[in-house]
Design the sequence.
């Protein structure tokens, strides 16, 4: 009796990832065993992928034996056929049926993969990944950029050479099962590349007076893309310098003496030595200068920026000074010798 | 074949049955005695051979044969042809067909008939034999070429095409 459909016959020990985690897994597949960049894909990689697809996914058995596959794309160099087919050749060194051969149409037109149409002009580079860097002193980030892959359509004719109708049936069943959803995928360097079954035709040699065998031709189109690693771009982004120094933990830091705040009012004393009656000073602040007292001074004239502003005496004892003013004091002494003027500056 | 026999009297002013038999015997003496082209006929036992029910194709290792018979005839092998297998670009040199002219009286004498699908082995060298499958057993001999000057048919032309070793490789 058949089991009910809802009963699982096998259990996956490793759960399959879905959604975002699956996408991350695919990205890791692309980058595996290499740099942070995806691996480049060329024509030869696509051809190899098709050969592997035929060899593995379309594997067909006849009388308990695998139908051998010519594991190269047949080219113009005839000798290479021999190296791949020597184990199923006949007395005349001709390839003997049954076998499967893959022929590529030499021309490769621009692709029809809908996700890679003419969308981005001028081979513009696109951000792919940010990769942290460290050169021993500087920590930074490299920005990896790649251009849009170039879509290509490659047509392959997979030909089955057999002597029996039952072998045709078996291979046909394999192909149609693989392409029941119109397309199948082959994994080339971590990228899943779709293959479409176009047509099935017959080229059997059925002449009455010749050796007879069936040839069936399965035409596939691989919707591949080309990615040239030489076009990948790696450019530095941000770098940060990290300076490190060592501090001895056993030494106590020297305690800084607290300083009083700068006063807003302080004395400004002017000394006129013997024989000198003039003093000039550039003030770096704005303040009022108040005369406190004088010693051996008859008169004191004040010039600011060489402009006379007045006499400084007990009645007129204040001079206002702005920042960067050149203030000149000119005195007349009561007697020869040393003279002093004591003033107080009040910052404004 | 009709049980009723009618004497052949054409050409009877200068040719008769005795002349015909004499010429055939001279020809056989030349062919079998002097030329001595021999080949081996492997007749398929169509009764005992295991066949596929739907396609009538023989199952693996299922072909049964009668005992092989060594025959003498006039053997010609055509030139090989160089061609691709279909459109596969896999080239091959296809061996030429084997054509055998064989006296009808000789076949009747030893009681052997050659039929479509039988295999023929022809030793090209002491250690190299090539097998052929009969594609034309030449049973129709009504044309002028197969008659002795229009008198009576006297030989059959057998055409056989080469087979690969996986189809037939001797018994």
Sequence:
């Amino acid at each position: 009796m058949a089991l009910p459909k809802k009963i699982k016959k096998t259990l996956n020990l490793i759960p399959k990832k879905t959604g975002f985690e699956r996408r991350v897994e695919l990205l890791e597949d692309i980058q595996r065993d290499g740099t942070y960049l995806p691996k480049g894909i060329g024509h030869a990689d696509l051809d190899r992928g098709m050969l592997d697809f035929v060899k593995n996914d379309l594997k067909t058995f006849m009388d308990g034996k695998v139908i051998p596959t010519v594991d190269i794309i047949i080219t113009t160099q005839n000798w290479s056929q021999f190296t791949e087919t020597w184990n199923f050749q006949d007395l005349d060194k001709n390839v003997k049926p049954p076998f499967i051969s893959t022929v590529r149409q030499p021309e490769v037109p621009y692709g029809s993969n809908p996700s890679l149409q003419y969308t981005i002009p001028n081979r513009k580079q696109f951000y792919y990944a940010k990769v942290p860097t460290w050169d021993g002193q500087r920590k930074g980030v490299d920005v990896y950029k790649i251009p849009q892959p170039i879509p290509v359509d490659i047509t392959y004719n997979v030909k089955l050479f057999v002597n029996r109708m039952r072998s045709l049936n078996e291979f046909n069943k394999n192909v149609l099962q693989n392409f029941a959803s119109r397309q199948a995928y082959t994994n080339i360097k971590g990228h899943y590349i779709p293959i479409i079954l176009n047509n099935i035709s017959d080229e059997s040699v059925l002449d009455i007076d010749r050796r007879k065998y069936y040839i069936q031709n399965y035409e596939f189109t691989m919707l591949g893309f080309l990615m040239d690693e030489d076009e990948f771009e790696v450019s530095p982004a941000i770098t940060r310098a990290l300076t490190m120094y060592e501090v001895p933990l056993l030494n106590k830091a020297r305690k800084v003496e607290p300083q009083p705040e700068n006063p807003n009012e302080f004395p400004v004393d002017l000394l006129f030595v013997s024989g000198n009656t003039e003093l000039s000073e550039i003030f770096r602040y704005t303040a009022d200068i108040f005369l406190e007292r004088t010693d051996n001074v008859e008169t004191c004239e004040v010039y600011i920026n060489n402009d006379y502003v007045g006499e400084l005496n007990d009645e007129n004892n204040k001079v206002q000074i702005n920042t960067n003013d050149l203030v000149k004091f000119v005195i007349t002494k009561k007697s020869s010798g040393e003279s002093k003027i004591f003033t107080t500056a009040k910052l404004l | 074949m009709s049980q009723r026999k009618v004497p052949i009297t054409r050409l009877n002013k200068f040719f008769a049955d005795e002349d015909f038999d004499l010429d055939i015997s001279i020809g056989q003496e030349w062919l079998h005695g002097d030329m001595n082209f021999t080949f081996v006929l492997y007749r398929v036992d169509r009764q005992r051979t295991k066949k596929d029910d739907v396609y009538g194709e023989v199952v693996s290792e299922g072909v049964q044969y009668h005992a092989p018979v060594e025959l003498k005839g006039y053997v010609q092998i055509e030139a090989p042809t160089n061609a691709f297998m279909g459109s596969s670009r896999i080239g091959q040199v296809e061996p030429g067909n084997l054509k055998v002219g064989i006296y009808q009286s000789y076949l009747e004498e030893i009681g052997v008939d050659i039929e479509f699908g039988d295999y023929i082995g022809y030793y090209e060298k002491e250690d190299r034999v090539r097998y052929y499958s009969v594609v034309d057993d030449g049973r129709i001999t009504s044309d002028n070429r197969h008659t002795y000057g229009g008198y009576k048919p006297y030989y059959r032309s057998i055409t056989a095409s080469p087979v690969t070793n996986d189809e037939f490789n001797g018994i």
Q: What stands out?
A: Residues 35 and 74 of chain B are 8 Å apart (CA to CA). The first helix of chain B runs from residue 17 to 35. Chain B has a mean pLDDT of 89.
